[in-house]
Design a protein that fits this description.
flat; four-stranded mixed sheet; GMP Synthetase, Chain A, domain 3; 402 residues
């Protein structure tokens, strides 16, 4: 097995493959929608931890609409929902009329309504195990190529966008606006080591003062972002840099493009490095296995890799609506698995992890999570989130044959 930190090979090695991932800032229109949906979810969960929430958001020029189904004992008025939406938009950074999307004054349309009783009867089962909120398949993944056990491309892309947001919020780069995205193309050698960056792409919204001063913007991004976040040894003379490659990026956010909850599912997970079942996260309470089972699958995969059972691991779980137990469990270690004798990886998973919705919620404490933070900074690979714990490592090490 490789070390549990980024393994950087000799950048003179032959490039075997190049993989690209992207991330976006909180001010990207789709992320604005995700964060609003999770802010509303948090408000309901704070008053009633057993709320059933499926909240979608769409945003465009000076307009935000929330819609979906909610069943809850929480007492939250339409006026309070509107305040949550406005406060969230302002917190993200859209707080001026010239942005054409201003939390103080944009139009808001609230179309939230009660959940279908046909769905609810399959989820709420009285004294029985809670049934899955929907059918579907969910994936989790871990690899030892980074300290966070995330694939390096998405790990680095997310660090770039989170630092870009920090530079804006702190005022260190005062002309930045909320919208932005990063993309990195990472070169690997034949042994799977990261050897260099083929390309780094960074697009950031800015105010009118920089529209004719892109060279200063590029210099600031190189000095205050790239040099701080990107390991120096990965930047070679062949690394291509593209900063605001279209030129100025003054118009952005929901005015520049519409946004919708759930359109950044690859950004929210593994940057395309691992498979995805198709379900989005934000705005969904923890009985929705689209969200909770993906978190659980990540937890399982991370503990398998951290324990030394494998260097790389992908977990698939699948569910039927209204049924508690998963319909299938799949474990793929891509040929990196340790010697575990006659026992199978799927049996190890079933014997050591609770895979029903109730078991997942209990294991990960999902009724006590602030979900808005996951929509802002990343759902996976973020230290402190309960599904990033490696508390099952000692239990799993026992399966390795000496």
């Amino acid at each position: 097995m490789r070390s549990l930190t980024l393994t950087i090979g000799d950048n003179m090695n032959e490039v075997y493959r190049t993989f690209t991932s992207e991330s976006v800032t909180q001010g990207h229109p789709d992320k604005v929608a995700d964060i609003i949906s999770d802010a509303i979810l948090d408000a309901y969960m704070k008053q009633d931890k057993y709320s059933h929430v499926a909240c979608e958001t769409c945003v465009t020029t000076d307009f935000c609409m929330v819609f979906g189904e909610i069943t809850s004992k929480a007492d939250i008025s339409k006026e309070e929902i509107e305040k949550i939406i406005r406060d969230t938009i302002i917190e993200i950074g859209y707080d001026k009329p010239e942005l054409k999307f201003d939390g103080h004054s944009c139009d808001i349309d609230n179309r939230l309504h009660a959940q279908s009783p046909d769905i609810n009867q399959g989820v709420d089962r009285g004294d029985e195990e809670t049934g899955a909120g929907d059918q579907g398949m969910m994936f989790g993944f871990a690899t030892d190529e980074t300290e966070s056990l995330m694939p390096y491309p998405i790990d680095l892309a997310r660090k770039l966008t989170n630092k870009l947001t920090e530079l804006r919020e702190s005022g260190e780069i005062p002309y930045l606006r909320p919208d932005g995205k990063a993309q990195v193309s990472v070169n690997y050698d034949k042994d799977g080591n990261v050897i260099s960056l083929d390309a780094v792409v960074l697009s950031t919204q800015h105010d009118e003062t920089m529209s004719d001063n892109q060279e200063q913007l590029k210099a600031d991004i190189r000095e205050k972002l790239f040099k701080v976040v990107i390991p120096e040894e990965l930047m070679t003379e062949n690394t291509k840099e593209h900063i605001n490659p279209t030129g100025k990026f003054e118009i952005g956010g929901p005015h520049g493009d519409s946004g919708l909850t759930g359109r950044k599912i690859i950004v929210d997970t593994y940057g395309g490095y691992a498979r995805h079942g198709g379900g989005a996260f934000s705005g969904k309470d923890c009985t929705k296995v689209d969200r909770s089972a993906c978190y659980m699958a990540r937890y399982i995969a991370k503990n398998i890799v951290a324990s030394g059972l494998a260097s790389k691991c992908e977990i698939q779980l699948s569910y039927a609506i209204g049924v508690a137990d998963p319909t299938s469990v799949m474990v793929d270690t891509f040929g990196t698995g340790a010697d575990i004798g006659d026992v199978t990886f799927d049996k190890i998973v079933r014997d050591n992890f609770k895979l029903t919705p109730d078991g997942i919620i209990e294991t990960l404490g999902l009724r006590d999570v602030e979900y808005k933070q996951t929509a802002k900074y990343g759902h996976l690979g973020i230290e402190g989130l309960p599904w990033e714990k490696t508390d099952k490592v000692e239990d799993l090490k026992k399966y390795i044959k000496n």
